[in-house]
């Protein structure tokens, strides 16, 4: 949902033409510009790269003030002259109205009834392009496209036609757009204050490959004579020339370097997440971290990569829960993680000690997620059955991905729009129930996450095992009556939603009892007082040498009766 970039766009020259000295300077420069703490991550999987022939995109809507829920927009037919309000997704401000489409499709979260799914990450881009004269913000753009398209390619046309006619309201965005056959990445940015429209490039991910983006523009050079696989605005190069951001041959034009040249924040906070995904899905490549650490002469990562083995929906879920474990950026290690390996760092993302500025890493999994999903599109099944939005609320690491079929007509209790809000806690809200468990886990993470993983794995494993049977029943019902199939799928998603809510409330209770007052109850219910890790005791001692040492004391002699 609401997402903003981690970094304010840099002002560097064309990246491919940077000298080693210039790149070294980026690595040394402090973060003098304000960094935006919210961010999102998308992973894109083509059907030839997936374990079951489905396409997949993932999305985490990361924001410190976002209430996560599953919104369902029903299909409809609309009379000529019907207007629709455009509400800015970030601010809630009404931007204006546009004519409603004659026909709109049902949208379940970020997937529609035709198995078209869309996610995004904000990259910001050049500050000169902020505040364009436009009506359509990035959030409205996604949901209008989902309501009006039957394929990914059609969604791209809807989005680009809308910004051409009504203008674009937001900063730079990367969009993931999929259907059962194709997966696309599209990057778009407005033309600056008082200028209408946008420049953009869309590229189809080659079948058999995986891509990712995380709040930094990633499309560089692209073919300009391959409309089946690459589409772009007619002025995407000429506008950059006009602004003085590109002066080479057209064939050398790079969208990312012209409109969102990477600064250190873009590399370390954003591209680092992509680097980690790519290394997980293709470990044989052993991609070095040089680029994300701004090492002079390091080459940018490719836009997509071929996995070493087929990627499953469980693999994508695992990636969405990553904290850089096992890498040099591992957030579960070091003094910042505390004695119990907490892989989160409270904001601000950057901090000063003396005159020097420092930062914490930014992993895919983060504490400020409102909701996340893995959208799975399966072309061999009827659309209401083939599309599954594996949907979770709050932190990805401690959430549960619950299957919400594209054909459902209502959200489960606790997951829908009416479930609550960001300002009032409720045990009837999935968001708040998951948040309650996560908040408790922060206090003793290395222990409590094991309890969470046990229930999380049990629930998700059961859901995955149910899906083939649910598919079979739904397909049979769909053959007799599509409405009956949708009712069956709605009931199924409601049931697994209710089960998840109950198990998570129970989990919170067990954790409260087990870890009450800093103690730990063992399997027999006995209270234990486990010590901190030895390493942490050493840190305490080193901080104040000798202060906490137990010293011998000579026993005092009492009065003698003799």
How is this fold's topology laid out?
Blueprint (H helix, E strand, L loop, with lengths): L19 H9 L13 E4 L9 E8 L9 E2 L2 E2 L5 E5 L6 E6 L3 E2 L2 E2 L2 E2 L4 E8 L13 H11 L3 H15 L5 E7 L4 E8 L7 E7 L5 E4 L16 E3 L3 H8 L11 H5 L4 H18 L22 E2 L7 H8 L29 E4 L2 E4 L9 E9 L5 H4 E7 L8 E4 L24 H12 L3 H36 L1 H33 L5 E2 L5 E2 L5 H10 L19
Antiparallel strand pairs: 1-2, 1-14, 2-19, 3-8, 4-7, 5-6, 8-9, 10-11, 11-12, 12-13, 13-15, 14-16, 17-18, 19-20, 20-21, 22-23
Helix pairs in contact: 2-3, 9-11, 10-11
What's the overall average pLDDT, rounded?
A: 92
Strand portion, in percent?
A: 15-25%
Could you state the oligomeric state of the chains shown?
single chain
Low-confidence stretches: 1-37
Radius of gyration: 26 Å
**Tally of DSSP β-strands:** 23
How would you describe the overall organization of this protein?
With 562 residues, this protein is α+β, with helices and mostly antiparallel strands. It has two domains: 15-345, no CATH class; 381-521, no CATH class. The protein has helices at residues 20-28, 138-148, 152-166, 236-243, 255-259, 264-281, 313-320, 383-386, 430-441, 445-480, 482-514, 534-543, and strands at residues 42-45, 55-62, 72-73, 76-77, 83-87, 94-99, 103-104, 107-108, 111-112, 117-124, 172-178, 183-190, 198-204, 210-213, 230-232, 304-305, 350-353, 356-359, 369-377, 387-393, 402-405, 520-521, 527-528. Strands 16-14-1-2-19-20-21 form a seven-stranded antiparallel sheet. The chain has a five-stranded antiparallel sheet with strand order 10-11-12-13-15, covered by helices on one side. A three-stranded antiparallel sheet has the order 3-8-9. Strand 11 (172-178) and strand 12 form a beta hairpin. 48% of the residues are buried. The model is unreliable at 1-37 (pLDDT under 50).
């Amino acid at each position: 949902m609401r997402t903003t970039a981690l970094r304010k766009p840099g002002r560097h020259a064309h990246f491919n033409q940077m000298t080693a000295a210039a790149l070294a300077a980026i690595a040394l420069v402090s973060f003098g510009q304000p960094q935006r703490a919210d961010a999102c991550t998308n992973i894109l999987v083509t059907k030839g790269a997936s374990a079951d022939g489905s396409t997949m995109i993932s999305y985490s809507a990361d924001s410190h003030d976002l209430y996560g829920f599953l919104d369902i927009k029903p299909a409809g037919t609309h009379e000529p002259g019907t207007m629709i309000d455009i509400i800015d997704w970030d601010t809630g401000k009404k931007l204006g109205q546009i004519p409603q489409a004659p026909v709109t499709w049902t949208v379940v979260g970020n997937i529609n009834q035709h198995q078209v799914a869309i996610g995004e990450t904000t990259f910001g881009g050049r500050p000169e392009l902020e505040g364009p004269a436009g009506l359509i913000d990035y959030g409205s753009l996604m949901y209008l496209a989902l309501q009006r398209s039957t394929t990914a390619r059609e969604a791209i046309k809807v989005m680009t036609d809308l910004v051409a006619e009504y203008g674009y309201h937001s900063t730079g965005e990367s969009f993931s757009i999929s259907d059962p056959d194709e997966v696309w990445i599209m990057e778009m940015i407005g033309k600056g204050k008082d200028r209408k429209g946008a420049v953009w490039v869309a590229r189809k991910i080659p079948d058999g490959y995986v891509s990712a983006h995380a709040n930094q523009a990633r499309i560089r050079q692209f073919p300009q004579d391959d409309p089946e696989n690459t589409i772009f605005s007619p002025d995407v190069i000429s506008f950059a020339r006009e602004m003085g951001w590109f002066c080479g041959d057209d064939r050398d034009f790079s969208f990312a370097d012209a409109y969102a040249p990477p600064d250190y924040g873009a590399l370390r906070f954003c591209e680092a997440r992509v680097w980690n995904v790519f290394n997980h899905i293709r470990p044989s490549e052993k991609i070095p971290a040089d680029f994300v650490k701004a090492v002079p002469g390091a080459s940018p990562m490719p836009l997509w990569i071929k996995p070493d083995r087929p990627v499953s929906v469980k693999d994508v879920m695992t990636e969405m829960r990553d904290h850089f474990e096992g890498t040099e950026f591992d957030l579960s290690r070091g003094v910042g993680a505390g004695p119990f390996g907490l892989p989160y760092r409270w904001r601000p993302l950057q901090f000063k000690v003396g005159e020097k500025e420092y930062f914490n890493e930014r992993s895919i999994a983060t504490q400020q997620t409102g909701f996340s999903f893995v959208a799975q599109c399966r072309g061999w099944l009827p659309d209401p059955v083939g599309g599954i939005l594996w949907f979770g609320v709050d932190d990805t690491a401690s959430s549960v991905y619950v299957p919400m079929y594209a054909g459902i007509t209502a959200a489960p209790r606790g997951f829908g729009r009416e479930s609550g809000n960001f300002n009032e806690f409720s045990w009837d809200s999935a968001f708040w129930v998951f948040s309650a468990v996560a908040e408790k886990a922060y206090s003793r993470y290395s222990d409590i996450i094991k309890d969470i993983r046990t229930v999380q794995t049990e629930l998700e494993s059961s859901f995955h095992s149910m899906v083939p049977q649910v598919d079979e029943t739904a397909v049979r019902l769909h053959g007799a009556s599509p409405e009956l199939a949708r009712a069956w799928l709605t009931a199924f998603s409601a049931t697994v939603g209710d089960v998840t809510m109950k198990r998570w409330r129970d989990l919170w209770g067990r954790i409260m009892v087990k870890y009450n007052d800093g103690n730990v109850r063992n399997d027999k219910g006995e209270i234990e007082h486990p010590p901190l890790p030895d390493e942490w005791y050493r840190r305490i001692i080193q901080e104040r040498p000798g202060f906490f040492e137990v010293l011998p004391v000579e026993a005092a002699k009492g009065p003698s009766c003799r």
